[in-house]
UniProtKB/TrEMBL annotation:
This is Alkylated DNA repair protein AlkB homologue 8 N-terminal domain-containing protein.
Length: 127
């Protein structure tokens, strides 16, 4: 609901102002809601992510006056806007780095080719 409201406001702003102002409004209205808690809800079903991505594509099309059937991939790169999955992966990597999960580099004193792999948690379960 917040994304649809932000998309409506973005379309209104685009009609009364220029492209730069609309892009600032996009970052203020839509991107902030998307980034908030994306680590928690980003691992949801593919259908939910597709819904958010569809609204985000509509916003990008609104910003650039792109046809509704045109590809958004080059426009995302041109406007330097990340997709939902790219934001989720970026935030997840930052969280893992912030938490300081053990990596193989901390387990060995010598260089190995897989020194930055995070080891899986092993549990001993008895049947």
């Amino acid at each position: 609901k917040k994304f649809n409201t932000a998309l409506y406001v973005l379309k209104r702003i685009k009609n009364i102002s220029n492209k730069e102002t609309a892009k600032i409004a996009y970052h203020a209205l839509m991107e902030t809601h998307l980034r908030y808690g994306v680590v928690v809800w980003g691992g949801t079903s593919a259908l939910n992510l597709k819904r958010v991505l569809t609204i985000k594509k509509s916003a990008v099309r609104c910003l650039t006056n792109l046809d509704h059937r045109g590809s958004c991939r080059p426009v995302f790169k041109h406007l330097t806007i990340k997709t939902v999955t790219a934001i989720y992966i970026h935030k997840l990597i930052l969280l893992v780095d912030k938490l300081g999960l053990p990596r193989e580099i901390r387990l060995h004193n010598h260089n190995t080719r897989s020194s930055f792999i995070i080891p899986p948690v092993r549990r001993r379960t008895a049947l």
